[in-house]
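Let's practice the habit of predicting before peeking. Look at the sequence and jot down your guess about where helices and strands might fall. Then scroll down.
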Amino acid sequence: MNFDRLQRSLLWRRGFVLAALLVSGALAAQGQRGSTTLVVTSTNDPNNNAVVVFELQPGGAPSLTLSQIVPTGGKGGASGNAGIVQFDGELGAVANYGSNSVIQLIRYGNGIVPGGTIRLAPDCEGPDSVALGQGHLYVVGKNCAESHTWPRGSLDGSVVSLADNSAAQIAVGRSWAAVTMTSGSVLHLPLAGDGGLSGASSAISLPAEANNTPLGEAFWGDVLGFTPAHSADSFAIVNAKQDVYPVVGPTPAYPTNAPCWVAKGAGNVWYTGNSPGQAISIFFSDADGGVFYKSVPVPGVPTDITVSPDGNWLAVIYTAADGAHVGVYSIDAYGGLTQAAVSPAIDVASFSGVAFSQ
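Done guessing? Here is the structure:
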């Protein structure tokens, strides 16, 4: 597929997508974009990766139904990561860890199809997390962090080499991006004027009580929240000056509880996927610290977590005895959660990444 031609005009793109849908038979009918809330995840299959799309029916008794399984044309296989699937408006991205590529996802009506393939920079391998923002796609993998113009996909900015292959997630704020390294650091990556990576990188100095196994992260403007999951203080706030404020999490700490993955809610609310505690652990913060609020049970081991663009829903992927599921929770005016719907088991052992498309 010629990716440049895909981007020439929205009209051309939609015509192409409609043709693709008719050929594939993936969707029988198309509605208006945004008429349905979709929850998107990936199988992470090391041989044949695919995007799984669930449709949220938010009526009196909300439900999640399987809508599509869309092959990405590449290989999965990532582990110990988050953010491998992202969506922004009608366009999204999913990384193929085993194929060293990122696939653009295109929403048309209530369906999703794969768009162009975005290759990594030379010598960069194993993409396991992506982020969208500042007019760019940001990718981190085994040995590099890089930025691409979005949605065109051209390499832009300077590639940042990584000291080891422990990158868990990349996220982007207003003036800087961050990469969590499970080996024990969080990297500060300044942005250039156009939003691409400047090429500079520095390790944020982490205190001893909050430096063990950084995993998930999310931004609130230029304030970063991340989870040093195996630390005594299992959540931390980092401001734009790189000041770090550790926050005590649920007790007892690791290995009983370990907030691992992060989603930003409305206002000063943060949600974390607490894998060993089988819960969503909630924190409140300002730019100079925070406090643990409470944990909400999850019927399995949660991994990645996200909040819908409209702020009404939280989705978490988790693994139970019968395989992988997506759980959706409604969010009330105070940031509280109520379980609303659970996806059916579809013979997938575990999912990787989760995102909303509205």
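How did you do? Residues 1-119+347-358 form one domain.
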